[in-house]
Design a protein that fits this description.
heterodimer, A: ABC transporter transmembrane region fold, 21 helices, B: 578 residues, alpha/beta, Rossmann fold, 3 domains, 20 helices, 10 strands
Chain lengths: 584, 578
Amino acid sequence: MSTLRQLMQLVKPYTKWMLLSALLGFLTAGSGIGLMMTSAYLIAKAALHPSIAELQIAIVGVRFFGISRGIFRYLERIVSHNTTFHILKKLRVWFYKSLEPLTPARILYTKKSDLFSRIINDIEELQNIYIRVLAPPMVALATMILIGILFGQFSWLYAFILFVFQFISAFIIPYFAYRLSKGLGSQIIQLKAMLNHFIMDGVQGIEELLAFNQFEKHHNKLANAHNKLMKIQRRMHLLKQMHEHFIGLLMFLSVVTMLIVVIPHVNNDELTGIYLAVLILGIMASFEPFIPLPEAAQHLESNMRSGERLFEIINAQPAVNFPKDGKPLPDIYDIHIKHLSFKYENSSKSENYVLNDINLNIPHGKMVAIVGPSGAGKSTLMHLLLRFWDIKQGIIQLSGIHWHEFTEDQIRNLWGIVSQHTYLFSGSLRENLLIGAPKATEKQLYNVIDEVALRTLVDRLPHGLDSYVGEQGLKLSGGERQRIALGRTLLRNNPLVMLDEPTANLDSLTEQKIFNHLFRFKGKKTLVMITHRLAGLDKADHIYLLNNGIIWESGKHHQLLKQNGLYAEMYRLQQAHEVIETIK
Amino acid sequence: MRPDKRLLGLLKDTLPDFVQSIAMGVLAALAIIGQAYLISRIIAEVFLYNSMLLDVQYLIGSLAAVSFLRYAASWQSANAGNKTAVFIKTKLRLQLFKHLKQMDTKTIKDERSGEVSNTLLNGVESLDVYFSSYLPQLFLSTLIPVLILFFVFPIDVLSGFVFLLTAPLIPVFMILIGHVANARTQKQWKTLSRMSAFFMDTLQGLTTLKILGRSKEQISHIEQVSEAFRKTTMDVLKIAFISALTLELLATLSTAIIAVEIGLRLLYAEMPFQKALFILILAPEFYQPLRQLGARFHDGMQGLHAAERIFNILNIQGHQTTNASVKKHSFNNQDDIRFEGVHVHYDGNDKPTLNNINLKLQPSETCAVVGSSGSGKSTLINLLLRFFEPDSGSIIIGNQPLEQIDVYQWREQIGWLPQKPYIFNTTLAENLRLVRASATDEEIMQALHLAHLDAFVSDLPLGINTPVGENGARLSGGQKQRLALARLFLRDTKIAVLDEPTANLDANIEREVEESLTQFMQHRTTLYVAHRLHTLRRADQIVVMADGQIVEHGSQSALLQQNGVYKQLFTAYQGSAV
């Protein structure tokens, strides 16, 4: 149960709010009981035709409970929802804080959209841990005590009888609900995932399904997955209903039992007849808090699963440990890589080296290109330069100082990165450009906009720089996204700039423009260009061609062409491709 | 909130279940009335007439029996409601999926893929509560109070009137407050949905934030936004919960009014005790269904939203081929393929995508199409695959118009290599058997060999039975291309349409598959969209397209003599390759 303990630790700061809300929930249930018991007393007493004065207190009681129940319920809902949103805030901050050091290495190679929507779902599930899991037993328990004391005033035997039935409702039924539906929850999640994958395949692969005459077959597979899901969902639903209604049945069985026990007592005047009605109606009002308990037990399971999944993600060790205090940065940034070999920890085969004995120099202010076919190890090399992973064999140095002697902030401030994978946040274009440099002036912003040829975009957008872009906003083309990424980096003004496939998605005119801009930095900034597209490389000071994890060829553009090796062949092929696409 | 007519229409085929759900709900209500009667009778007997346990034993026995009846009836009511929901979810989900055949593939794949798959999964799912609880409750919240009134009026007219007058107040208040709350909520809605998407946004952009050195600042930002979210939501909820408060107050106050009113009349002996107790026990049960309906209000709204999305998609009509004809036509080696005055104009585009295309493919000819993107190259391929029909003009196969040939049989005879192949979330072997279900493992290995993927597959511990993940996530771009190529080889048809890959141009992979592909084209009628000049060498005929029209066509040597676009292109290539 350590998951539960960890979860409880998380919600502990809100104990006061939770107790208050449980108290209000209890008062709501108590008012219900009070209303029915005083009403019963009122009419039973009235049946004996006393003076009206004797009824006064009961009448006031009925009115009071009639109003207080509604008000307590209202307050309870406000407080419990407020608590839920506090918990949500806490969960988000906690999870983000724990995930941040693990990024990007630990999440780089998982299917991200999947992972994140699962996290969001799990956090949403857990935000309800109080309302759905913790509150119902607290309220039920308090109600049990209240009604026990009330009945004890008449006879502890009555209290005991009621206790037996309520104990069954509070513990035994939820226990069976938990046992019988155990595993159904996770089966539903699995089946839903399976159905989802048939749906995704059916939607994204529609052309293949039609062209290969597979549509009907896929339809049947989807129907099959759907039917399996329906079957389990139905079982879950029936179990839930069975348990909930069973509590209603238990309530009447306790009424029947109580009648059998109490009637003889009334007959021999051990109990005043008035209270017969009071007791019976009291029982009928007291079972309400037990109805949500079986469902709470079912929710407990799914909450535990959600908690386990979240803990599993964030309990991973960070891939990199940064020192607290870094060495002071040198004045000149010369990068040397010596005898660097690298393999990922999870790769099973020992020979799976992604990089093999790499020696490479990136002198200050120069432009160095690292090129190669996909899978050659370019991205890994880039990630090592950015210190996403620690290295075990070989060294990376910055002007003689080891890479691992700098803090994370130092390294992030050294590198500016232009990547085709840059994420656009939901927010205005301005916010997206300024995200890396919140203190940039308006003038700097507009300069950069011109430099990366974004002016036409800004003019085209309905609200200019303040137009909403990103996931929920305007759709931008790949080239526009790329230029925004470039703009972000330029505003950051870092001394080292990493260009990860910088001109993918760009037309040749824009490509030329951006290259011209970047080349102006030559001498001032160090440029590292990572690409499989061999364009603009005649300007590079040095080119390394990676293939199968080793440096295959290296030199300047014209030297490599003369060698007539792999580089020259790649270049020729791409030129051919180039020409056809630009024909008009 | 009025139920959606289209949703009610769906009930037609599952009416017995739905009626059963309501009938059982009514039966449960009758049992409740019975319980109230029996309890009031037993208490009255004992309290006022000093009856012994033996005198009331049958009444107590009946109470137990009626309680079991109520349990069975209400469970069965929920059961039948759930059955209705399952039936309708099944019907709609499968109907939606089948409808994809009527839509344009481009709409499904690119423009609205997220919406379509989300509706298929979650949209349909959110109809569950609508049919299993909201709709039955809507009926029961009218039927049960009427039923109770039917019993209360003959016993006590005054209490009957209190019930009758207070009951309608509940829906009236619900609607009134619902309106106010709704207006308030709508105003906040946009802010709220942006705030709830914010966390997902931050997680997805975490790597970017990290790279920009801004990931730690986001902690306080998340805290701020979540806090603002809490405050805004609570403002909305404070209003929204007032409707619940009103319901609650109305129900409990009415119960209190009844209690006092009958209590006073008892006092003056205007009413017998048993009847008073009976009405008192029934009072909360009278308001219960209305309160439950209030609690399900949200489910009802969700159901309506989902219905909107579902029917929106079902209303989309595309240009897709309907299999009007079932004429069989087996393509033979003497058949040519002719495009005659083919014209295609997509809705919403200013210019036609294809404008008066006339083109003839000789038997076993290899025909290459070149042109800039948007020139209409891929539309030619889509027409041959019959993803849609031309607006005018026709395609003739031998002497048979294509639209008159049975679409299933035609597609069996045509091989296809798409530019961005889709890889299904299953094993490598299953991905290949898609094109030929009966293929043996040897045939699969042979196709993989031709596509130069055999070495890779043999290295895998599970070989051809390796699962490839969502859209082939475990394969590289080049491997996906070669898998699609293996599909083409395995399908082994007399006609093939190909869209050469432009991405993942790795020189070594390129060389490997080139040979297999050239050989494959030799005895087949092939139409292929070429992206690289050097692959044009194998073409018997080259078609140059621009703006939906054919600007030049002929053999490579003929085109070079023409001194047109192709010539320019060719010279440019020759020049740059030096």
